[in-house]
Amino acid sequence: MDVDTDFREAADTRSRADRQPTPSASGLPPVLTFRDVLAGPSADRNTPGVLWPDFDSQTHARLWRRNRAVCTRPEIDGSNPVIVTDPGMFVSMYDNHFGHMVAETVPRLPQSLVEAPDMPLCFTCDRPMRVDQTSGMFRSVLGWLDVPPEQVRLIHEPTMFRELHVAVQAEYLDGPPPLQGYLDLLEARIGHKIDPVRPEGITFVTREGLAPQKGRHAAESYLTACLKELGVRIVHPEALPLPDQMQIYASSRYLVFSEGSAAHGRQLLGRVDQHISILRRRYRSQLAMNQLQPRCASLSYVPSFGGSLHVADEWGKKIRHAMASLYAVAPVLAHFEALGVPLRRVWDNETYLRLRDEDVLEWVKRMYRSDIQPWLKPYNTDAYLLDQFEPLGLGHLRARAAALIGASRPPVASVHPAAAQKVPPPPPPQPPATQAPGTDLRRSTIALRGERGIDLFARIMEPGQMRPGFRCIATLVGQGAEARLHLYRHALIPHIRVLTGVAAEAQNDPVLAARFSLFDPEGWPQPGGADPSRIVQYHDLIAAWQVADAVARRFLARLEHRPDGLLAEPGALVSGIGPLHDFNRLTLGVQAARLLEPVLAKRLDTRQPLGEATESTGQALRLLDDLCTRAGEAELARACRALAARIEA
């Protein structure tokens, strides 16, 4: 199948007499050229969807973050790809997040546009899509760089490029400063869009207009109102066209950001004689430090972080981007006073505290709404959040916060993963024509005899993956009236009866319980003896189990013989412990905890830093805490939990 006509048309129609003169791309690594490259759909930022030759050894072609290549090898069905014979320039996956697009996608564009001005610009995506169907943010960023829409190609199916080019990612998140050659190209690209004015005045870029669950300082609206009263220019970036934002940024002598993605917007400009400061919402954050410093006269981070409230996801990991942060008020006042803004003159602390409390309670309400995005849903116990109030000086709000949480959750005694819930006998099967509550859950849940009872697994499809995965969501221990269901996700509490029924049906199914030989097809389950779709599900589960088991055992062998090597690799612990947690491998989880706990404890006692692996190590310990709790190893679970707390402090 040959569809390179679009690519030729882009070259034929892309003759622009008004193109701005641009300098040479000298100083940047040359654009790379590859032959016969397979690309495909991508819904995952860390899997851009291009299978580069010698993938693991590629550098410039892959996605970089925190001084290392972070993208993973994609799985693409290359049996019948679309063939593109004309050359293309790969840029990135289609990203709908402003901060990531500006920090990780844009840095490939200036060089691409200079060295191959007429070549189609290729973005991978997860579904058929026209350029006019992409987000307004995506189109506005491309428009800022004068990228014609007709030059953009969105790749949503397996595609073989006979010739594919890619420019270096000239800067990236938490990476080194950009090369001066990149800033030269960027300035030449956008310089004519900025009115040549001398920077003056003070601008505060606020997050107050964003929804509470997107993360912001409590009572930021009060700070904004005080600054506005004192003549500071206030910018709500989400309410302004991108060119207007850029003009304001470029014309400000002092540019102050509330920490967030808007600060990455400053990367769309080059060098301006101005002073940039960022009010921290996270502990010791240095957001975009190496990217902003070369673009301004000075850069500072105001120690305005006064603690935060947060919930955890289903892995026990803090949802940091959605925290409710508190101000350390004194540094905020001092910073604006140093800029010549007499903030103390109008600041009323009683008003601030009242509005702070209101914002905190509104954040609690929003985080526990039933319609919140899945990646923001709290999976922790109520106490997990409520116990944070007293140390932050918010103890007087605990009861009101508990009432807000209680109003959004079904009444239960406990929701901790290890807290057993007594359940009644399963209900009688529903007639086929009846769509009872939980029908979809019944069909998508699969039961397997585990180490402590019957484990129940959810079948999941991760973005960018070609085969299903599985995750243990509950365990049924005991039988009949004595059965107790251990739930590992709070959202499943309303479905206790359905899950119990799934476990009972599987336990009593003679076909599923029969022993059989993989070598002898005569002994394989037959569709006549069980639901054919269930047999297919079990087939997928067996395959996933075997892969996870191999990964887990290799991980344990490495942990036993060279634990320091694993500790030096960001994400290595999570990738090894994750399969144990997914499949509820209690014995292997306890084994991993016993091997890892003393090594980590010694490392922390001797103050050896974990560097880039800090966050993923804390996440891995949370998973081991959960596995040890399920296995009844309370002391070992507490030790893992304590280590995680020390690492995350």
Automatic annotation (TrEMBL):
Feature: compositional bias, Basic and acidic residues: 1-19
Residue ranges annotated for the Glycosyltransferase 61 catalytic domain, each copy included: 98-264
A GO MF label: glycosyltransferase activity
Listed Pro residues bias regions: 423-434
Ranges where the record places region Disordered: 1-31, 415-442
Protein name per Swiss-Prot or TrEMBL: Glycosyltransferase 61 catalytic domain-containing protein
Native species: Pararhodobacter aggregans
